[in-house]
Design brief:
The complex is a heterodimer of chains A (about 210) and B (about 270). Chain A has about 210 residues and is mainly alpha-helical. The radius of gyration of chain A is 18 Å and the shape is globular. In chain A, about 65% of the residues lie in helices and about 0% in strands. An eight-stranded antiparallel sheet of chain B has the order 5-4-7-8-1-2-3-6, covered by helices on one side. Chain B is elongated and about 75 Å long. The chains are: A mainly alpha (about 210), B alpha+beta (about 270). Chains A and B meet through helix 3, helix 4, helix 5, helix 7 and helix 8 of A and helix 2, helix 3, helix 4, helix 5 and helix 6 of B.
Protein backbone atom coordinates (compact mmCIF):
# COMPACT_ATOMS: atom_id res chain seq x y z
CA UNK A 1 0.00 0.00 0.00
CA UNK A 2 1.41 3.39 -0.88
CA UNK A 3 0.93 6.39 1.32
CA UNK A 4 -1.63 8.65 -0.22
CA UNK A 5 -1.57 12.40 -0.19
CA UNK A 6 -4.04 12.60 2.67
CA UNK A 7 -1.45 11.14 5.03
CA UNK A 8 0.61 14.28 4.59
CA UNK A 9 -2.35 16.48 5.48
CA UNK A 10 -2.78 14.83 8.78
CA UNK A 11 -2.55 17.35 11.61
CA UNK A 12 -3.03 15.84 15.07
CA UNK A 13 -5.64 17.73 17.03
CA UNK A 14 -4.87 18.79 20.63
CA UNK A 15 -7.22 16.07 21.91
CA UNK A 16 -5.37 13.53 19.78
CA UNK A 17 -2.01 14.61 21.22
CA UNK A 18 -3.37 14.26 24.76
CA UNK A 19 -4.69 10.80 23.90
CA UNK A 20 -1.31 9.74 22.57
CA UNK A 21 0.34 10.95 25.72
CA UNK A 22 -2.18 8.98 27.78
CA UNK A 23 -1.71 5.87 25.66
CA UNK A 24 2.05 6.08 26.11
CA UNK A 25 1.52 6.10 29.86
CA UNK A 26 -0.94 3.21 29.53
CA UNK A 27 1.84 1.25 27.82
CA UNK A 28 3.97 2.00 30.90
CA UNK A 29 1.30 0.46 33.10
CA UNK A 30 -0.18 3.63 34.57
CA UNK A 31 -3.77 3.02 35.65
CA UNK A 32 -4.56 6.73 35.85
CA UNK A 33 -3.82 7.09 32.15
CA UNK A 34 -6.25 4.30 31.32
CA UNK A 35 -8.80 6.01 33.51
CA UNK A 36 -8.44 9.25 31.57
CA UNK A 37 -9.05 7.40 28.29
CA UNK A 38 -12.02 5.63 29.85
CA UNK A 39 -13.46 8.93 31.03
CA UNK A 40 -13.11 10.39 27.54
CA UNK A 41 -14.47 7.50 25.50
CA UNK A 42 -16.60 5.21 27.64
CA UNK A 43 -19.89 6.71 26.47
CA UNK A 44 -18.99 6.30 22.80
CA UNK A 45 -17.59 2.82 23.47
CA UNK A 46 -20.66 1.67 25.35
CA UNK A 47 -23.04 3.22 22.81
CA UNK A 48 -21.34 1.42 19.91
CA UNK A 49 -21.26 -1.87 21.80
CA UNK A 50 -24.92 -1.52 22.78
CA UNK A 51 -26.01 -0.67 19.23
CA UNK A 52 -24.21 -3.75 17.89
CA UNK A 53 -25.05 -6.27 20.62
CA UNK A 54 -28.48 -4.89 21.52
CA UNK A 55 -27.84 -6.29 25.02
CA UNK A 56 -26.70 -4.10 27.90
CA UNK A 57 -24.92 -6.87 29.86
CA UNK A 58 -23.08 -8.00 26.73
CA UNK A 59 -22.23 -4.40 25.88
CA UNK A 60 -20.67 -3.91 29.33
CA UNK A 61 -18.56 -7.03 28.85
CA UNK A 62 -17.47 -5.78 25.43
CA UNK A 63 -16.41 -2.40 26.83
CA UNK A 64 -14.49 -4.07 29.64
CA UNK A 65 -12.72 -6.45 27.25
CA UNK A 66 -11.94 -3.63 24.84
CA UNK A 67 -10.38 -1.34 27.44
CA UNK A 68 -8.46 -4.28 28.86
CA UNK A 69 -7.28 -5.07 25.31
CA UNK A 70 -6.14 -1.46 24.91
CA UNK A 71 -4.45 -1.64 28.29
CA UNK A 72 -2.49 -4.73 27.26
CA UNK A 73 -1.76 -3.73 23.67
CA UNK A 74 -1.11 0.00 23.98
CA UNK A 75 2.42 -0.52 22.70
CA UNK A 76 1.00 -1.89 19.43
CA UNK A 77 -0.67 1.39 18.54
CA UNK A 78 1.08 2.86 15.52
CA UNK A 79 1.41 6.60 15.52
CA UNK A 80 0.58 8.31 12.24
CA UNK A 81 -1.92 5.66 11.21
CA UNK A 82 -4.98 7.06 12.87
CA UNK A 83 -6.10 8.63 16.12
CA UNK A 84 -6.09 6.88 19.47
CA UNK A 85 -9.84 7.39 19.56
CA UNK A 86 -10.29 5.53 16.28
CA UNK A 87 -7.97 2.76 17.41
CA UNK A 88 -9.82 2.35 20.68
CA UNK A 89 -13.28 2.43 19.15
CA UNK A 90 -12.25 -0.05 16.46
CA UNK A 91 -11.29 -2.48 19.22
CA UNK A 92 -14.75 -1.98 20.72
CA UNK A 93 -16.34 -2.53 17.32
CA UNK A 94 -14.38 -5.75 16.67
CA UNK A 95 -15.20 -7.14 20.10
CA UNK A 96 -18.88 -6.29 19.79
CA UNK A 97 -19.15 -7.87 16.34
CA UNK A 98 -17.33 -10.96 17.59
CA UNK A 99 -19.71 -11.29 20.52
CA UNK A 100 -22.78 -11.09 18.27
CA UNK A 101 -21.25 -13.63 15.87
CA UNK A 102 -20.52 -15.91 18.81
CA UNK A 103 -24.27 -16.04 19.40
CA UNK A 104 -24.66 -17.42 15.89
CA UNK A 105 -23.01 -20.79 16.40
CA UNK A 106 -22.33 -21.54 12.75
CA UNK A 107 -20.18 -18.46 12.23
CA UNK A 108 -16.44 -18.89 12.31
CA UNK A 109 -14.70 -16.16 14.28
CA UNK A 110 -11.74 -14.28 12.88
CA UNK A 111 -8.45 -14.44 14.76
CA UNK A 112 -8.25 -11.04 16.38
CA UNK A 113 -5.10 -11.65 18.34
CA UNK A 114 -2.79 -11.44 15.36
CA UNK A 115 -2.01 -7.79 14.61
CA UNK A 116 -2.86 -6.74 11.06
CA UNK A 117 0.01 -5.92 8.71
CA UNK A 118 1.17 -2.34 9.17
CA UNK A 119 -0.14 -1.52 5.71
CA UNK A 120 -3.63 -2.37 6.89
CA UNK A 121 -3.74 -0.08 9.87
CA UNK A 122 -6.07 2.42 8.36
CA UNK A 123 -5.68 6.14 8.57
CA UNK A 124 -8.79 8.08 9.29
CA UNK A 125 -10.26 11.41 8.42
CA UNK A 126 -10.81 12.76 11.92
CA UNK A 127 -8.11 15.42 11.92
CA UNK A 128 -9.09 16.94 8.61
CA UNK A 129 -12.70 17.29 9.54
CA UNK A 130 -12.60 17.19 13.34
CA UNK A 131 -14.21 20.58 13.62
CA UNK A 132 -17.39 19.50 11.86
CA UNK A 133 -17.44 15.76 12.38
CA UNK A 134 -20.11 15.12 14.94
CA UNK A 135 -23.16 12.89 15.08
CA UNK A 136 -25.20 15.40 13.12
CA UNK A 137 -22.64 15.68 10.31
CA UNK A 138 -22.32 11.92 10.02
CA UNK A 139 -26.08 11.34 10.05
CA UNK A 140 -26.42 13.98 7.37
CA UNK A 141 -23.67 12.28 5.33
CA UNK A 142 -25.46 8.97 5.75
CA UNK A 143 -28.54 10.74 4.44
CA UNK A 144 -26.84 11.31 1.09
CA UNK A 145 -26.66 7.55 0.50
CA UNK A 146 -29.35 5.60 -1.29
CA UNK A 147 -31.51 3.49 1.02
CA UNK A 148 -29.94 0.25 -0.18
CA UNK A 149 -26.41 1.59 0.25
CA UNK A 150 -27.17 2.73 3.79
CA UNK A 151 -28.81 -0.57 4.58
CA UNK A 152 -25.80 -2.56 3.39
CA UNK A 153 -23.37 -0.43 5.39
CA UNK A 154 -25.47 -0.50 8.54
CA UNK A 155 -26.04 -4.26 8.38
CA UNK A 156 -22.27 -4.70 8.07
CA UNK A 157 -21.03 -2.15 10.58
CA UNK A 158 -23.78 -2.18 13.21
CA UNK A 159 -25.35 -5.55 12.42
CA UNK A 160 -22.10 -7.48 12.35
CA UNK A 161 -23.23 -9.37 9.24
CA UNK A 162 -20.80 -10.58 6.59
CA UNK A 163 -21.40 -9.51 3.02
CA UNK A 164 -22.66 -13.03 2.24
CA UNK A 165 -25.12 -12.79 5.12
CA UNK A 166 -26.25 -9.37 3.92
CA UNK A 167 -26.83 -10.79 0.43
CA UNK A 168 -28.90 -13.64 1.89
CA UNK A 169 -30.84 -11.39 4.28
CA UNK A 170 -31.74 -8.82 1.63
CA UNK A 171 -32.17 -11.26 -1.26
CA UNK A 172 -29.53 -9.40 -3.25
CA UNK A 173 -26.68 -10.80 -5.39
CA UNK A 174 -23.33 -10.73 -3.56
CA UNK A 175 -21.73 -8.51 -6.20
CA UNK A 176 -24.46 -5.94 -5.73
CA UNK A 177 -23.96 -5.94 -1.97
CA UNK A 178 -20.23 -5.35 -2.45
CA UNK A 179 -20.81 -2.43 -4.80
CA UNK A 180 -23.46 -0.89 -2.51
CA UNK A 181 -21.04 -0.95 0.41
CA UNK A 182 -18.26 0.51 -1.69
CA UNK A 183 -20.32 3.23 -3.36
CA UNK A 184 -21.96 4.06 -0.05
CA UNK A 185 -18.59 4.55 1.63
CA UNK A 186 -17.39 6.72 -1.25
CA UNK A 187 -20.54 8.82 -1.07
CA UNK A 188 -20.01 9.30 2.67
CA UNK A 189 -16.43 10.25 2.09
CA UNK A 190 -17.51 12.78 -0.47
CA UNK A 191 -20.11 14.22 1.87
CA UNK A 192 -17.70 14.42 4.81
CA UNK A 193 -14.62 15.66 2.96
CA UNK A 194 -16.06 17.21 -0.16
CA UNK A 195 -13.08 15.82 -2.08
CA UNK A 196 -14.87 14.18 -4.96
CA UNK A 197 -14.76 10.77 -3.39
CA UNK A 198 -12.07 9.26 -5.59
CA UNK A 199 -13.37 9.28 -9.18
CA UNK A 200 -10.72 6.79 -10.33
CA UNK A 201 -12.48 4.20 -8.21
CA UNK A 202 -15.99 5.45 -8.84
CA UNK A 203 -15.64 5.08 -12.59
CA UNK A 204 -14.36 1.55 -12.54
CA UNK A 205 -16.29 -0.77 -14.84
CA UNK A 206 -18.57 -3.34 -13.32
CA UNK A 207 -19.29 -1.45 -10.10
CA UNK A 208 -22.61 0.11 -11.02
CA UNK A 209 -25.17 0.01 -8.26
CA UNK A 210 -28.34 -2.06 -8.58
CA UNK B 1 -5.54 -13.75 -4.10
CA UNK B 2 -4.80 -11.29 -6.88
CA UNK B 3 -5.01 -7.50 -6.86
CA UNK B 4 -8.43 -7.38 -8.54
CA UNK B 5 -9.99 -9.56 -5.89
CA UNK B 6 -8.27 -7.57 -3.14
CA UNK B 7 -9.83 -4.40 -4.58
CA UNK B 8 -13.22 -6.04 -4.80
CA UNK B 9 -13.06 -7.02 -1.12
CA UNK B 10 -11.85 -3.64 0.16
CA UNK B 11 -15.25 -2.27 1.25
CA UNK B 12 -16.17 -5.52 2.96
CA UNK B 13 -12.81 -5.60 4.68
CA UNK B 14 -12.91 -2.09 6.10
CA UNK B 15 -16.48 -2.67 7.33
CA UNK B 16 -15.47 -5.94 8.99
CA UNK B 17 -17.91 -7.84 6.75
CA UNK B 18 -15.62 -10.52 5.32
CA UNK B 19 -15.51 -14.16 6.30
CA UNK B 20 -12.44 -14.96 8.39
CA UNK B 21 -10.87 -16.87 5.52
CA UNK B 22 -11.34 -13.90 3.17
CA UNK B 23 -10.01 -11.56 5.82
CA UNK B 24 -6.87 -13.65 6.22
CA UNK B 25 -6.41 -13.76 2.45
CA UNK B 26 -6.63 -9.95 2.29
CA UNK B 27 -4.07 -9.63 5.10
CA UNK B 28 -1.71 -11.98 3.33
CA UNK B 29 -2.12 -10.25 -0.01
CA UNK B 30 -1.61 -6.72 1.26
CA UNK B 31 1.35 -7.75 3.40
CA UNK B 32 3.19 -9.04 0.35
CA UNK B 33 1.73 -7.12 -2.63
CA UNK B 34 4.02 -4.68 -4.44
CA UNK B 35 1.13 -2.86 -6.12
CA UNK B 36 -0.49 0.12 -4.37
CA UNK B 37 -3.94 -0.43 -2.87
CA UNK B 38 -5.18 3.11 -2.20
CA UNK B 39 -8.77 1.87 -2.02
CA UNK B 40 -8.11 0.53 1.49
CA UNK B 41 -7.23 3.84 3.18
CA UNK B 42 -9.72 5.65 0.96
CA UNK B 43 -12.68 3.50 2.00
CA UNK B 44 -11.32 2.70 5.45
CA UNK B 45 -10.92 6.33 6.40
CA UNK B 46 -14.71 6.74 6.33
CA UNK B 47 -15.44 3.88 8.71
CA UNK B 48 -14.49 5.58 12.01
CA UNK B 49 -17.00 8.30 11.17
CA UNK B 50 -19.80 5.71 11.22
CA UNK B 51 -19.26 5.33 14.96
CA UNK B 52 -20.25 8.98 15.37
CA UNK B 53 -23.70 8.24 14.01
CA UNK B 54 -24.56 6.13 17.02
CA UNK B 55 -27.10 7.35 19.57
CA UNK B 56 -25.23 8.05 22.81
CA UNK B 57 -26.19 5.95 25.83
CA UNK B 58 -24.60 6.36 29.27
CA UNK B 59 -23.27 3.08 30.71
CA UNK B 60 -23.79 2.24 34.40
CA UNK B 61 -21.22 3.87 36.69
CA UNK B 62 -20.16 0.48 38.06
CA UNK B 63 -18.64 -0.35 34.65
CA UNK B 64 -15.71 1.92 35.39
CA UNK B 65 -14.87 0.00 38.58
CA UNK B 66 -14.98 -3.25 36.59
CA UNK B 67 -12.67 -1.92 33.88
CA UNK B 68 -10.19 -0.46 36.30
CA UNK B 69 -10.21 -3.55 38.51
CA UNK B 70 -9.52 -5.75 35.49
CA UNK B 71 -6.58 -3.57 34.49
CA UNK B 72 -5.28 -3.54 38.08
CA UNK B 73 -5.46 -7.33 38.14
CA UNK B 74 -3.56 -7.54 34.88
CA UNK B 75 -0.93 -5.19 36.24
CA UNK B 76 -0.52 -7.26 39.39
CA UNK B 77 -0.17 -10.45 37.35
CA UNK B 78 2.41 -8.76 35.14
CA UNK B 79 4.43 -7.56 38.12
CA UNK B 80 4.40 -10.93 39.81
CA UNK B 81 5.50 -12.50 36.53
CA UNK B 82 2.62 -14.92 36.73
CA UNK B 83 -0.61 -15.48 34.90
CA UNK B 84 -3.72 -14.20 36.69
CA UNK B 85 -4.16 -16.35 39.77
CA UNK B 86 -7.83 -17.19 39.48
CA UNK B 87 -7.84 -20.03 36.93
CA UNK B 88 -5.40 -22.02 39.10
CA UNK B 89 -7.78 -22.01 42.04
CA UNK B 90 -10.57 -24.54 41.57
CA UNK B 91 -13.96 -24.23 43.20
CA UNK B 92 -14.20 -26.37 46.32
CA UNK B 93 -15.98 -29.59 45.42
CA UNK B 94 -19.26 -30.50 47.04
CA UNK B 95 -19.45 -34.23 47.66
CA UNK B 96 -22.26 -35.68 45.52
CA UNK B 97 -25.14 -37.23 47.40
CA UNK B 98 -24.12 -35.99 50.81
CA UNK B 99 -26.12 -32.83 50.70
CA UNK B 100 -29.87 -33.24 51.24
CA UNK B 101 -30.49 -30.29 48.98
CA UNK B 102 -29.47 -30.78 45.34
CA UNK B 103 -27.10 -27.87 45.12
CA UNK B 104 -25.43 -27.46 41.74
CA UNK B 105 -22.57 -29.83 41.13
CA UNK B 106 -19.03 -28.59 40.82
CA UNK B 107 -19.37 -29.12 37.06
CA UNK B 108 -22.54 -27.08 36.90
CA UNK B 109 -21.00 -24.29 38.88
CA UNK B 110 -17.94 -24.48 36.66
CA UNK B 111 -20.13 -24.16 33.58
CA UNK B 112 -22.09 -21.32 35.10
CA UNK B 113 -18.98 -19.26 35.54
CA UNK B 114 -17.12 -20.43 32.47
CA UNK B 115 -17.25 -17.05 30.82
CA UNK B 116 -14.00 -15.14 30.83
CA UNK B 117 -15.38 -12.18 32.69
CA UNK B 118 -15.84 -14.23 35.84
CA UNK B 119 -12.20 -15.24 35.87
CA UNK B 120 -11.28 -11.67 35.18
CA UNK B 121 -13.33 -10.37 38.04
CA UNK B 122 -12.02 -12.69 40.69
CA UNK B 123 -8.49 -12.12 39.40
CA UNK B 124 -9.21 -8.44 39.78
CA UNK B 125 -10.30 -8.71 43.37
CA UNK B 126 -7.44 -11.00 44.31
CA UNK B 127 -5.02 -8.69 42.61
CA UNK B 128 -6.41 -5.62 44.30
CA UNK B 129 -6.00 -7.35 47.62
CA UNK B 130 -2.47 -8.40 46.69
CA UNK B 131 -1.54 -4.96 45.44
CA UNK B 132 -1.60 -3.44 48.89
CA UNK B 133 -1.00 0.26 48.56
CA UNK B 134 -2.20 0.46 44.99
CA UNK B 135 -5.67 -0.69 45.92
CA UNK B 136 -6.22 2.67 47.53
CA UNK B 137 -6.67 3.69 43.94
CA UNK B 138 -10.04 2.01 43.66
CA UNK B 139 -11.06 2.55 47.24
CA UNK B 140 -10.71 6.29 46.99
CA UNK B 141 -12.75 6.51 43.84
CA UNK B 142 -16.18 5.05 44.38
CA UNK B 143 -18.77 6.99 42.46
CA UNK B 144 -20.96 8.48 45.19
CA UNK B 145 -24.18 8.12 43.20
CA UNK B 146 -23.53 4.43 42.52
CA UNK B 147 -24.48 2.47 45.66
CA UNK B 148 -22.97 -0.74 44.32
CA UNK B 149 -19.56 0.88 43.83
CA UNK B 150 -19.73 2.18 47.40
CA UNK B 151 -20.68 -1.30 48.66
CA UNK B 152 -17.84 -2.90 46.70
CA UNK B 153 -15.40 -0.42 48.18
CA UNK B 154 -16.58 -1.42 51.67
CA UNK B 155 -16.06 -5.13 50.87
CA UNK B 156 -12.61 -4.43 49.48
CA UNK B 157 -11.66 -2.69 52.73
CA UNK B 158 -12.38 -5.94 54.56
CA UNK B 159 -10.68 -7.97 51.84
CA UNK B 160 -7.46 -6.01 52.37
CA UNK B 161 -7.12 -7.16 55.97
CA UNK B 162 -4.71 -10.04 56.68
CA UNK B 163 -6.31 -13.46 56.91
CA UNK B 164 -9.34 -12.58 54.79
CA UNK B 165 -10.74 -14.38 51.75
CA UNK B 166 -12.69 -13.00 48.81
CA UNK B 167 -15.53 -14.44 46.75
CA UNK B 168 -17.09 -13.30 43.50
CA UNK B 169 -20.74 -14.28 43.41
CA UNK B 170 -22.32 -14.88 40.05
CA UNK B 171 -25.83 -15.78 39.03
CA UNK B 172 -27.63 -15.95 35.73
CA UNK B 173 -26.35 -13.80 32.90
CA UNK B 174 -27.07 -10.20 33.88
CA UNK B 175 -28.60 -11.44 37.13
CA UNK B 176 -27.56 -11.04 40.77
CA UNK B 177 -23.82 -10.76 41.18
CA UNK B 178 -21.36 -9.18 43.53
CA UNK B 179 -18.42 -9.76 45.79
CA UNK B 180 -17.98 -10.81 49.39
CA UNK B 181 -15.11 -10.81 51.83
CA UNK B 182 -14.67 -13.31 54.64
CA UNK B 183 -12.86 -11.53 57.49
CA UNK B 184 -10.32 -13.25 59.71
CA UNK B 185 -13.00 -13.56 62.44
CA UNK B 186 -15.29 -15.48 60.06
CA UNK B 187 -17.79 -12.70 59.49
CA UNK B 188 -18.89 -12.14 55.89
CA UNK B 189 -19.51 -8.77 54.24
CA UNK B 190 -21.27 -8.93 50.92
CA UNK B 191 -21.98 -6.39 48.15
CA UNK B 192 -24.58 -7.47 45.59
CA UNK B 193 -26.27 -5.87 42.60
CA UNK B 194 -29.13 -6.80 40.25
CA UNK B 195 -31.13 -8.45 43.02
CA UNK B 196 -34.92 -8.45 42.74
CA UNK B 197 -36.54 -6.32 45.45
CA UNK B 198 -37.86 -8.26 48.44
CA UNK B 199 -41.49 -7.89 49.50
CA UNK B 200 -43.18 -8.51 52.88
CA UNK B 201 -41.14 -10.84 55.07
CA UNK B 202 -39.00 -12.07 52.17
CA UNK B 203 -35.24 -12.10 52.68
CA UNK B 204 -32.15 -13.10 50.80
CA UNK B 205 -30.39 -15.70 52.92
CA UNK B 206 -26.63 -16.23 52.66
CA UNK B 207 -25.22 -19.75 53.04
CA UNK B 208 -21.80 -21.12 53.70
CA UNK B 209 -21.02 -24.48 52.12
CA UNK B 210 -17.83 -26.15 53.31
CA UNK B 211 -16.30 -28.70 50.93
CA UNK B 212 -18.38 -31.85 51.34
CA UNK B 213 -20.69 -30.17 53.84
CA UNK B 214 -24.30 -29.04 53.97
CA UNK B 215 -25.32 -25.42 53.45
CA UNK B 216 -25.28 -23.48 56.72
CA UNK B 217 -27.24 -20.22 56.95
CA UNK B 218 -25.24 -17.19 58.10
CA UNK B 219 -27.76 -14.37 57.86
CA UNK B 220 -30.31 -12.63 55.70
CA UNK B 221 -31.09 -9.20 54.36
CA UNK B 222 -33.78 -7.35 52.47
CA UNK B 223 -33.36 -5.47 49.22
CA UNK B 224 -35.00 -2.33 47.89
CA UNK B 225 -35.89 -1.23 44.40
CA UNK B 226 -32.28 -0.44 43.44
CA UNK B 227 -31.40 -4.15 43.69
CA UNK B 228 -28.23 -3.35 45.62
CA UNK B 229 -27.30 -4.81 49.00
CA UNK B 230 -24.44 -4.32 51.43
CA UNK B 231 -24.76 -6.78 54.31
CA UNK B 232 -22.53 -8.07 57.09
CA UNK B 233 -23.37 -11.57 58.34
CA UNK B 234 -21.99 -13.18 61.48
CA UNK B 235 -24.38 -16.13 61.99
CA UNK B 236 -21.76 -18.82 61.44
CA UNK B 237 -18.03 -18.23 61.00
CA UNK B 238 -16.85 -18.78 57.43
CA UNK B 239 -13.34 -19.43 56.18
CA UNK B 240 -11.33 -19.59 52.99
CA UNK B 241 -12.31 -22.51 50.76
CA UNK B 242 -16.03 -22.40 51.41
CA UNK B 243 -18.61 -21.54 48.79
CA UNK B 244 -20.88 -18.60 49.53
CA UNK B 245 -24.38 -18.85 48.10
CA UNK B 246 -27.51 -16.73 48.16
CA UNK B 247 -31.14 -17.85 48.04
CA UNK B 248 -34.44 -16.04 48.26
CA UNK B 249 -36.53 -17.17 51.23
CA UNK B 250 -40.12 -16.45 52.29
CA UNK B 251 -38.89 -15.23 55.67
CA UNK B 252 -35.86 -15.07 57.94
CA UNK B 253 -34.59 -18.17 59.78
CA UNK B 254 -34.59 -20.75 56.97
CA UNK B 255 -32.53 -23.81 57.87
CA UNK B 256 -32.45 -25.40 54.42
CA UNK B 257 -32.11 -23.30 51.29
CA UNK B 258 -35.00 -22.81 48.88
CA UNK B 259 -33.76 -23.30 45.35
CA UNK B 260 -32.73 -21.84 43.03
CA UNK B 261 -29.49 -20.37 44.21
CA UNK B 262 -29.60 -16.85 42.88
CA UNK B 263 -25.86 -16.26 43.09
CA UNK B 264 -22.82 -18.16 44.37
CA UNK B 265 -19.03 -18.32 44.34
CA UNK B 266 -16.04 -19.76 46.19
CA UNK B 267 -14.18 -17.75 48.85
CA UNK B 268 -10.49 -17.71 48.03
CA UNK B 269 -7.48 -16.37 49.88
CA UNK B 270 -5.37 -13.85 47.99
CA UNK B 271 -2.14 -15.07 46.42
CA UNK B 272 1.11 -14.33 48.31
CA UNK B 273 2.36 -10.76 48.04
CA UNK B 274 3.86 -10.15 44.61
Amino acid sequence: MSDTGEMGLRQPSPADAADRDALGRVADGQLEALESLYDRYHVMAYSIALRITNDSALAEDVVQEAFLGAWRNAARYIEGRGSVKTWLLSIVHHRAVDSTRRRRPTTELPERDAPPPAALTLPDIWPEVSGRLDGEAVRSALGTLSDVQREAIELAYFGGLTQQEIAARTGTPLGTVKSRMRLGLLAMRHALLGDGGGPELGDQAGWADR
Amino acid sequence: MNCDLARELAAGYVLGALDPSEERAVHDHLASCKEPHPEYPELGSVVPALAEAVELVQPPASLKARVMAAAAADLAARRSGAAPAAPAVPAPPVAPGESVVPFPSAEEREARRSRGSWVLRIAAVLAIVALGASNAYLLTRPTPQDPFAVAVARVLEVARQPGSATAILKGEEGGPSGIAAVAADGSVVMAMENLGATTGTEVYEAWVIAPGGDPVPIGGFQVGADGVALATMTGTPAESGVTLALTREAGPGATTPTLPIVSAGPALSPPPEA
